Amino acid sequence: MTFPRYQTKSDKPRTVPFTPAASTVLDEMTPHVARRSDGSLSFFPISEQNTWHMWGQVKQDVRKAGFNIDDVTLHTFRHTCLTRLAQGGMDVLRLQN
Fold it and tell me: Is the pTM of this model over 0.70?
């Protein structure tokens, strides 16, 4: 199964391959997800604006605790996650998807 993505940073449509386990989870989630005004399903209903607001709040909280993470971005977490998966032995071909 694949998941079509039409809004990408390169403006080129692409598909994301899903494992059978991920497909099963999405099937189970479908009755419980939000519907957009056009009737399509929204599995991840947090808007980009809300994501950036929450990230700003996290940075403020961390700053209050005495740490400066101004050079950390949400994209940093993606790289950290993928690096740790590679260090844990995940196949590089699976990581690049």
Answer: no
Q: Is the dihedral of CA 21, 25, 26, 30 positive or negative?
A: positive
> Which residues have C-beta within 8 Å of that of residue 82, sequence separation ≥ 6?
95
Concatenating the DSSP letter of every residue in 33-60 gives SEE-TTS-EESS---HHHHHHHHHHHHH
Per-residue pLDDT tens digits of the chain, which is 97 residues long: 556 666 677 777 777 777 888 888 888 888 888 887 887 777 777 777 888 899 999 999 999 999 999 898 888 888 898 899 999 998 888 887 6
Token pair, residue 36, equals: 């957009």
User: Both tokens of residue 85?
Assistant: 């998966």
* CB-CB neighbours of 5 under 10 Å: 11
